[in-house]
Amino acid sequence: MKTFSKNLFWAIATFILITIVFSLLFNLGTQKPPVLSINEVVKKINAGEVKSIAVSGDSLELVLQDESKAVSQKEEETSLTETFSNFGVESQALQSVELTVKEEGGVRFWLGILIPTLLPIIIIVLIFWWIFRQAKTGVNQAFSFGKVNLKLFTPSRKKTTFKDVAGLKESKEELEEIVDFLKSPKKFLDIGARIPRGVLLMGPPGTGKTLLARAVAGESNVPFFHISASEFVEMFVGVGASRVRDLFKTAKKASPSIIFIDEIDAVGRERGAGLGGGHDEREQTLNQILVEMDGFDRDTNVIVMAATNRPDILDPALLRPGRFDRRVILDMPDINDREAILKIHARGKQLDKSVNLKAVGVRTPGFSGADLANLVNEAAILAAHSNRKHITQNDFFESVEKVMLGPERKSRVVSEREREITAYHEAGHALVAASLKDSDPVHKVSVVSRGIAGGYTLKLPTEERRLKTKAQFLADLAVAFGGYAAELLKFKDLSTGSSNDIHQATALAHRLVTQYGMSDKLGPRTFGKTQEMVFLGREISTEKDYSEEVASQIDEEVNSLINKALSAAKRIVSTKRRVLEKIAKTLIEKETLEQKEFYKIIKSFKLRPVRVVG
Ligand code: ADP
Ligand code: MG
Ligand code: ZN
Q1: What number does the ligand 1 atom closest to the CA of 333 have?
Q2: CA 367 to centroid of ligand 2, rounded, Å
Q3: Which listed CATH number (1.20.1050.10, 2.40.30.170, 1.10.10.10, 3.30.720.210) goes with 33-103?
Q4: Exposed, middle or buried: residue 434 (CB in 10 Å: 0-12, 13-18, 19+)?
Q5: How many other C-beta atoms lie within 10 A of the C-beta of residue 490?
Q6: For residue 47, what pLDDT is reported?
Q7: Which of the residues 174, 281, 426, 487 is marked catalytic?
Q8: Whose CA is nearest to atom 18 of ligand 1?
Q9: Spans of all domains in the chain
Q10: CA distances from 414 to 400, 402, 455, 546, 587 (A)
Q11: Beta bridge partners of 266
């Protein structure tokens, strides 16, 4: 835009200059001699003042005896002598005047014709020229979009190494081979080994895929070309494939090197699965990646790494041998890994001596590496905000809940009545959880509002687990109704505080029946096919693959699960009403009960957990 206005300025300036030059030329040629009428000319001739007259067309140029000049105009279409005789010039006087007839023409004549006609044309041509020049640079810019916007991590930057990656032992071992190859390819080639071309990192978001890829680059000390797959397809249709070509060309020139394509599912979705027109572009890009990977010679020392959290939707062609044949799976961190990740991120931070990161690890099941990194930062912010020099254990615990549930809102004004309702509600959840064998133990109960919740009961599993049983789900369902049952028992009334519990419980019951095959009546099958709509990338439609009859059976089963859970919750709170009262009263008084305080109350009543009656 800036260059355009600059050019426009020059265009106008040149135009003005040309105009000035031409008007000067004209003015120089005509030194504005006085204009005389024919009568005056005749008078001057008769008086013998005129030396010569030059006729050119209808205009007369006179030179007088004193060498001064004058111009005049004769009548059109008549000869000069005729005019003069008409006006009564004496022939004697005329004889002493030198008469010449000039051919009309010459430079001035031609300029007089050409300038008015040519100048606009020239100006128009110039303007067009400028416009085209503009357009051309625009087009060039458009073509440069085909050039890939590479991010190159050179070893000069702060290096990431395997030491910066906690846990993920197997994944690291797998990648060490790659590092070894990049460091000394000859060793592998001499023995005749075929080098893996593609490594696919798969795992949930935040588990460290990008981090691990960087660590490989840092360890092997080779150029590392980093691009997010979504950058292949942006703005212009058709640039994806050319960007891929460009990327591979650059990487080959720099070999040995690593190409890292992050979030490859953006282009690597199964071909032909798209809706709308957008997928053509993806397909071409994907095809180009496949072509480039096939085009590697045996001794091309370029390794393509890619990361995705959706391996299930990748095109099978990508996973074929010779392409991304190495697959590295990254799991969510387990308790030991969590501690290790916390340690890595706590490096360089001022921790209080009392801090026990293992205890933080215990409280954070389901946290990804990214969540944990965030957690440590939150704890540091918390400590700094209260002007402390060191991060305490409590800062960490506080941040766990903040990351999980949102910030505490102690200042929210709550009426006595609402506080009481919340206390009984949370006491209900906690009591039911403590009374059931298959429920996770209660870690904390609180009536301090947090995020959008009025209060909360925090349950955490005692051990790592990847599977969950039907008994555990049923216990969860009953706990979900604990608040509802307690409110009903205490106040003979219900509040909106249970709406989220009910929502969660209904969704869970529905999943038990339709997805986990945990309904006795309907048996082990799934109901409903969720279809992925590619253009939104989310499950948005569920195809019904069962009859109306089955639909009503599903409803019945969901209802029956919910009713059983509710009556279990009701039974617990009413038979242990005294415990409920005690928990609720303590909550009103203290706001928050930690695990130890809570179980002290439970033990004082000699409560023993039971199984949910199915
Ligand atoms: P993704 O798998 O989504 O690519 P990232 O690699 O971007 O996840 O991880 C995000 C951040 O989480 C990293 O920058 C790092 O700080 C932290 N992180 C994740 N996993 C680990 C890990 N295993 N060890 C140390 N830090 C980790
Ligand atoms: Mg990533
Ligand atoms: Zn609740």
Answers
A1: 23
A2: 16
A3: 3.30.720.210
A4: buried
A5: 20
A6: 80
A7: 426
A8: 369
A9: 1-30, 33-103, 151-329, 335-405, 416-604
A10: 24, 20, 11, 48, 14
A11: none
Residue 399 has pLDDT above 80, yes or no: yes
Give the pocket of ligand 1 (CB within 6 Å).
165-168, 203, 205-211, 307, 341, 344, 369-370, 373
Q: How far apart are CA 526 and CA 519, in angstroms?
A: 11
Average pLDDT over residues 461-465: 74
Instruction: Give the whole-angstrom CA distance, residue 98 versus residue 88.
Output: 18
Give 522's contacts (C-beta < 8 A, 6+ positions apart): 513, 550, 553, 554, 557
Domain made up of 151-329: CATH architecture = 3-Layer(aba) Sandwich (3.40)
Ligand lying nearest the CA atom of residue 433: 3
Q: Which residue has the tokens 């928990």?
A: 583
The pLDDT tens digits for 292-307 are 888 777 667 888 899 9
Sign of CA dihedral 488, 493, 498, 502: positive
Rounded to the nearest 5°, which phi and psi values hold at 203? 170, 160
Tell me the pLDDT tens digit for each residue of 78-111: 777 777 777 777 777 777 777 777 766 567 777 7
Buried b (16+ CB within 10 A) or exposed e, 96-106: ebeeeeeeeee
426 is catalytic: yes
pLDDT digits (tens, 9 = 90+) for 211-260: 999 898 888 888 888 888 777 766 556 677 788 888 888 888 887 888 89
| Token reading at 530 | 């969720």
| pTM of the shown model | 0.64
Q: Among 381, 397, 401, 415, which Cα is nearest to 456's?
A: 401
Neighbours of 208 (CB within 10 A): 26
What pLDDT is stored for residue 536 in this prediction? 42
- Measured in Å, residue 614 CA sits from the centre of ligand 3 at 22
483: helix, strand or coil: helix
In which residue are the tokens 């022939």 written?
91
The architecture in CATH of the region 335-405 reads Orthogonal Bundle (1.10)
**Which residue, among 445, 355, 335, has the nearest Cα to 401 in the 3D structure?**
445
